[in-house]
Amino acid sequence: MQNITDIIEAYLKQILHDQKKIEIKRQEIAERFDCVPSQINYVINTRFTIEKGYFVESKRGGGGYIRIQKIVILDSHDLLDEMSRWIGNDLTQQAAEDYLIRLVNEQLLTRREAIVIQSLLQKESLPMALEDQRRMRAHLMQTVLQTIKRL
Amino acid sequence: MQNITDIIEAYLKQILHDQKKIEIKRQEIAERFDCVPSQINYVINTRFTIEKGYFVESKRGGGGYIRIQKIVILDSHDLLDEMSRWIGNDLTQQAAEDYLIRLVNEQLLTRREAIVIQSLLQKESLPMALEDQRRMRAHLMQTVLQTIKRL
DNA sequence: CACCTCTCTGACCATCTTTGACTATTATTT
DNA sequence: AAATAATAGTCAAAGATGGTCAGAGAGGTG
């Protein structure tokens, strides 16, 4: 946890812990952590994705901003359907892990369950060409989502 | 006990004696013991395997690490290893269900966990020729058995 | 000595992070 | 309306780690 990305991520999440939404100025954050502005984009693109449950908006030009919100979906059924739609028929290993973590946070899965599922979705478990792997992973994840509904 | 592998192994295990988990930087350890970085991989691959009761994770790139955890060896590991042997690389849907029921009875899985796994091993989840399906199912089940060890 | 197994090394690969030049968009000023 | 200023976005290259693998080296055994 000495790389800037993790530090900035922690900083933003800590704020989001108290507030549901934050609005930052890219340049300001970059200055505060002494990094280039595009670093902030990297943090957002890798740590505040839809898979992880965040919604990001931004505006350029004078008075520009980046706004980050934690997505709250009250009805778990809806969350499962949303996830299903997001996934479609293509899913990377990283995205799968992010979704599983989200499901654990939403208490739709236990940590143990997520670990087992994750192990089945990792590339070592899907011995096939990369493209097929992602399709297969998506297919299995869809099954998981449907199964959770009946648990 | 004069070769570097043993020395590094002892060093790491001594730390693991006090802590359940350690996180190292490959390069740092290599420097400390004056060896090439890949030596660390050798140590890990030969001395910190799942069979020996260790679980290892890592991350590359800036802020990368290697994390080693000691997992508790249970008697039930024998059962898991036996099942693994029985299954080999071919598993029917019915047999899979039977194994899962057994695992639930042995309290190695919860009912919910078994249901999720079963849903992933059913034929609808494995869209491929029947023969491949059975091989794939066996492969996934093997993953499950290994994963259970570190739950 | 011949042979086998375990260890060690280094070249090459894969993945994640950081940086900066260039681009796109919006607001403000002329 | 056009020019300028103020922001944010994109992308590819460089940097920072860890992983793999094949071959060389070392130690033991018949």
The quaternary state of the protein chains shown equals homodimer
Question: How many strands in all of chain A?
Answer: 3
* Separation of the first and last Cα atoms of chain A: 37 Å
Q: Tell me the Rg of chain A in angstroms.
A: 17 Å
Domain CtsR N-terminal HTH (chains A, B): 3-71
Keywords (chains A, B): DNA-binding, Repressor, Transcription, Transcription regulation
Domain CtsR C-terminal dimerization (chains A, B): 76-146
Protein name (chains A, B): Transcriptional regulator CtsR
Write the SSE topology.
Two copies of one chain form a homodimer.
Chain A: H1 4-18, E1 21-24, H2 26-32, H3 38-47, E2 54-59, E3 65-70, H4 76-87, H5 93-105, H6 111-121, H7 130-150
Antiparallel strand pairs in A: 1-3, 2-3
Chain A binds a DNA duplex (30 and 30 nucleotides) through residues 3-5, 25-27, 35-42, 46, 58-66.
Note down, in words, how this protein is organized.
The structure is a homodimer of 151-residue chains. Chain A is mainly alpha-helical. Helix content of chain A is 59%, strand content 11%. Chain A is built from seven helices and three strands. Chain A has helices at 4-18, 26-32, 38-47, 76-87, 93-105, 111-121, 130-150; strands spanning 21-24, 54-59, 65-70. Chain A has a three-stranded antiparallel beta sheet with strand order 1-3-2. In chain A, strand 2 and strand 3 form a beta hairpin. In chain A, helix 1 packs across helix 3, helix 4 (76-87) runs antiparallel to helix 7 and helix 5 runs antiparallel to helix 6. The longest helix of chain A has 21 residues, at 130-150. Chain A is globular, with a radius of gyration of 17 Å. The structure holds a DNA duplex (30 and 30 nucleotides).
